[in-house]
Automatic annotation (TrEMBL):
Keywords: Membrane, Oxidoreductase, Transmembrane, Transmembrane helix. GO terms for molecular function: glycine oxidase activity. It is an enzyme of class 1 (oxidoreductase). This is FAD-binding oxidoreductase. Its EC number is 1.4.3.19. Residues 5-343 form the FAD dependent oxidoreductase domain. It comes from the Bacteria. GO terms for cellular component: cytoplasm. The chain crosses the membrane at residues 6-23. It comes from Pseudomonas luteola.
Length: 374
């Protein structure tokens, strides 16, 4: 039975960013991943590295998101140097498009709150005329937008590939197609069991998305996560017309256009639905009328991972030392801080002070079944 310094359960964006960060600190790492049988949040990611508007009511999360966006260029550079994979990071800023005066009022209220709470929080309020100068193809239904230079996007599939390639180049062992059935904690660390195999490690990281709820309970961690479905449409490749991402529409490095931003509480149903896809298409055409005549080539649904308050959970087990849980909604945006801050913490560095804001203690009085709504 081969023992490693750390076992990471979950080979998605969260788990692989942490595994890569741990390997960069010369730790031996095994990643156990369910593979195609799992509910894979990474496959439904919109690819935004987004700061604007995040953390209203919780300034610590707004700053945490900003920290990750600032670290992103270094992560992209390192991954390219190690793997030759360009994850297509672009940070030209981003637009929150508003289709009504009420939406504009609400969005500007949120950004002014964040600016007051954090101080230096750059953004602009753009009326229709100014917005049309920056985005000439904008539709007449768009009344305005908020723009922040802090935002950007990447190719999430290339990111996942680069993290896997970089981690494995540094010796990370990937055990795919495995389902962890039990976790045993003892004086020498952890033993993880599947139906046929056993693996041992000194430390354990649970980054299994929706699976963290059950796995966490085995090592004294309360992770009341629930599924939230998002759907995405992808068009045929188009001539470049959009040089910065928006929250509803973004053009990828390959020329396709992604349409998204649905939020659905439908339990573990990760299928697509014509009603939601129709609404995504309608809104996208309202934002950019040129999209009315293009072909949609792919569509899918995927389950996001949400805590009761929507913020990440970073927790070291109080009863099984060496066990950590990491779960979040923004696997792309937070990838850089996971690799460069969370991984060193798991390796043994002093915890950043802001992590106390994201512990599972805030859910001590939460009924797990009530939080786990469908």
């Amino acid at each position: 039975m081969q023992k490693t310094d750390v076992i990471v359960v979950g080979g998605g964006l969260v788990g692989m960013a942490i595994a890569y960060g741990l390997a960069c600190r010369d730790m031996t790492v095994r990643v156990i991943d369910e593979g195609d049988e799992a509910f894979r949040a990474a496959r439904g990611n919109f690819g935004l590295v987004w700061v604007q508007g995040k953390g209203v009511g919780k300034p610590s999360y707004a700053q945490w998101t900003r920290n990750s966006a600032a670290l992103w260029p270094m992560l992209a550079k390192d991954l390219f140097a190690e793997t030759g994979v360009d994850v297509q990071l672009q940070q030209p800023g981003g637009y929150q498009l508003c289709l009504s005066d009420d939406e504009m009022v609400e969005e500007t209220r949120r950004l002014h709150w964040l600016s007051d709470a954090l101080g230096n929080y750059p953004f602009e309020e753009l009326g229709r005329a100014e917005l049309r100068k920056r985005l000439p193809g904008i539709g007449p239904e768009v009344v305005g937008a908020c723009y922040s230079p802090m935002d950007g996007h990447v190719n999430p599939l290339k990111l996942l590939y680069a993290l896997h390639a970089g981690a494995q180049r540094r010796g990370v062992i990937l055990s795919a197609g495995r389902h962890v059935t039990d976790i045993v904690h003892g004086s020498t660390g952890f033993e993880l069991r599947t139906s046929e195999e056993r693996w041992k490690s000194e430390k354990l990281v649970l980054a299994a998305g929706l699976g963290n709820r059950i796995l966490g309970s085995k090592v004294g961690l309360n992770i009341p996560v629930r599924p939230n479905r998002g759907q995405i449409l992808v068009t045929e490749r188009l001539e470049r017309f959009l040089t910065a991402p928006t929250t509803y529409v973004r053009q990828t490095d390959e020329g396709t256009v992604q349409l998204g931003d649905s939020l659905e509480s439908v339990g573990f149903n990760d299928l697509s639905s014509t009603s939601v896809m129709g609404e995504l298409a309608r809104r996208a055409v309202s934002c950019f009328p040129r999209l009315a005549s293009v072909n949609v080539v792919r569509a899918w649904g995927a389950l996001r991972v949400l805590s009761p308050d929507g913020y990440p959970i970073y927790q070291h087990s109080p009863v099984c030392p060496g066990a950590f849980a990491v779960t979040c909604h923004s696997g792309v945006t937070l990838a850089a801080v996971h690799a460069r801050v969370i991984a060193p913490w798991i390796a043994g560095s002093t915890a950043p002070p802001e992590l106390s804001e994201f512990s599972h203690d805030r859910f001590a009085a939460v009924d797990l079944e009530a939080a786990y709504v469908h």
